[in-house]
Structures are given as C-alpha cells and as structure tokens.
User: Fold this.
Amino acid sequence: MNKRALLVANSASMIDHFNRDNIAILKSLNYEITVAADFHHGNSSTKERINEFKSELLEQEIEVLPLSIPRSLAHIPEMFKSISRLKKHIAEHPYEIIHTQTPFGGVVGRLAAKKTRKQNKTKIIYFVHGFHFFKGASAKNHIIYYNIEKYLSHYTDCLITLNHEDYAAACNKFRHPNVRYVPGIGVDTDMIHNIQVDKAAKCLSLGIPTDKKIILTVAELIPRKNLEGAIRAFAGMRNHDSILVICGKGHLAEQLKKLSQDLDIADRVFFPGYRTDILEIYHIADIFLFTSYQEGLPVSVMQAMAAGLPVIASDIRGNRDLLGSGEDTQSSDYLIDVKDTTAFTNKLDYLLEKPEIRASLGSENTKRCRDNFDISIVHKEMLAIYKELASN
Assistant:
C-alpha cells in the first residue's frame, strides 16, 4: 500500500501557485495525495483557473477535499467547523505526512491533526509563508499571532520558513527543534530568462501602447499589496513617456481605477487583470515596481529578477532577502521605505533615464535569482525534508 500525504491550505490557488513541485516530489516518493482547500472563495486566481486546476489534480488521481477555511479571526465558529470536518477525514484516512501552510490553514491543519500525530506518529509540516507578527506589525498582531504560532509549534514536526527574519523568530522565540530555511517555492530561472516575446504583439493583446516605457507590477489587488502607493508614485514622475501596468485581480480593482482617474493618469495606467501569460509580460517591461506592505518571499519579484528586470521594491521582510539588503549588491539600493512615495518616484525617474543601469541591475538580479532562489535549490531541500520525516 502506498503512503498517504495531505496538503492543507486555505485556498486552492495557494496549492496551485506554491505546491505544484511539492506534489510532484511526493508522487515521486509514492505517496497518494489529498488536497484540502477552499475551491470557491478566497482564491487569487480566476474561477476558470481554479476549475482547471481541480481537473488537473483529479487527472493525476489526487483526491480533492473542498474545505472552507476562513481568512479572518472574525470567523472563528466557521474555523472550528473546518477543524472538526478535517479531523474526521484524517481519522478515516490515516496519513504519514500532513503538510499545512498559510496562517489559518496552519491552524486548521495542525489542530485537526493533533490526535493522529500522537497516536499514529503522523509527521506535521507547517510551511510559513510569512509570520503575521513580523517587524513593523501592529501590537495586536504580535499579541495574537505570536501566541497562536508559538502554541501550535508544539504540534509541528518540521517548521519551514522562507525568509531569514522568520527563520530567526522560529529558532529564537519558539526554540523549535526542527526549523528549516527553504528559499520560497523557487522559480525556473533559466526557463523564465530565455522566454522570447514579440513585444508589439504582446502589447497589442494587452491593449497597451507599444512605444512607451513599461513599469510593471504583479499583485493581488488587496490592501496589503499597497497598489495605491504604486499608483501615487507613478503619478508623481517627471517622465510621462511611460505607462504603469498592474496585473492581478482583487476587490480593490474599481477603487484603484478611480484613484488613477482622480490623479489624472487613467490613460497611462492599465489593469489587464489576472494573466496566465505573466511570464511573457515580464519580458516587455522595463522596470518592476513592488510596493507591498507585507510579504513572506514574493514570487512575482523572483520572476521579475529571473526575467532580467531591475526591481524597485518596498524595504520589507522577504524583499530584503531577494534584493540583498545589507549585502554588496546594487539592487539593495532600490529597497525603499514603504511609506516614502517620493523616494519610489525618484527611483523610477532615475532608472528610466539610465538604460545602462537598468541592464546592469537586471543582470545582477538574474544571477542572484539563479544562485539563491532557483527551483532546483528548493526541490532539493523539500525532497530532503520529506525523506527525513518519512525515515523518522
């Protein structure tokens, strides 16, 4: 009989975006796999993509367990219903490994697995995509999320972090015996870098001008991503021979479009929505702009680096790991205080005037991504973790 593994997250898009390689590794180790996630609400992908992903899982004979996991502390009763349902499923379908992720997915998965961990020696993984009690977070976040995470760490066999700030927190504050650093989900650096794109044709398909410098940002249109900051930084630029392209979906779409109108730049700000051709779009851009308030280790920044783009990003956890804060890199000079809109604007204007510096930054970013964040590095680490847990 094959071994069984369960992957838990609060959204199907989280599994789709962050766990495809993990699924491949587990299949290579002869695990039968179940995915438990919400396939209806809270997804950053389109409904069409979620349905397509579900079909892909079923075609691979991966069991799909629809599980509503709320993303807010305001929905505690619903969360306990999810814990109860998952606990019952686990009791009826014993697993060797349960891989949880996201703050609320981690709560539901680990509480539901407490009994099986004790009785059946099931190994529990929690992949931290960014602690909510990060440096700069509110006192409320520190009080609530720190204590929840510390408590649940006692029911975790392997705690995986993807940036150095979270790694230090898990080691020093939780004193967990098995904390691992894995550099995100990784990207296929060479594949992304070598993509060839007809810029004119791609611009035409996006409905954007072909003769303008393109500033690109890729993010879910939600408050945490601070796209208002990106739009305001763009609005302040001296250089008007450029456009801002914001790829992604989210509930702030109309609000952000109205802001562009209010700032009188609506004709230069474009919202193509959620894109399945995003890797090609990086190759028509001139600068990648990322103004997020909070991240673990953003995939979009890694993809932009692999594509050879210069990156201007907020000086926050995750972005610092990627661009080398405190290290001897050019790119670290383009980490900006997230609240300093003027500094973002000045960096944008400066880089648009300096094509040679854009090229130099792009080359440095590609090399750094290949050396530190390539999918092959992550694959090797995750394979070792799964094997180690199985052997124990």
About this structure: The domain at 189-372 is CATH 3.40.50.2000 (Rossmann fold). The first helix runs from residue 12 to 18. The first strand starts at residue 3 and ends at 8. The radius of gyration is 21 Å.
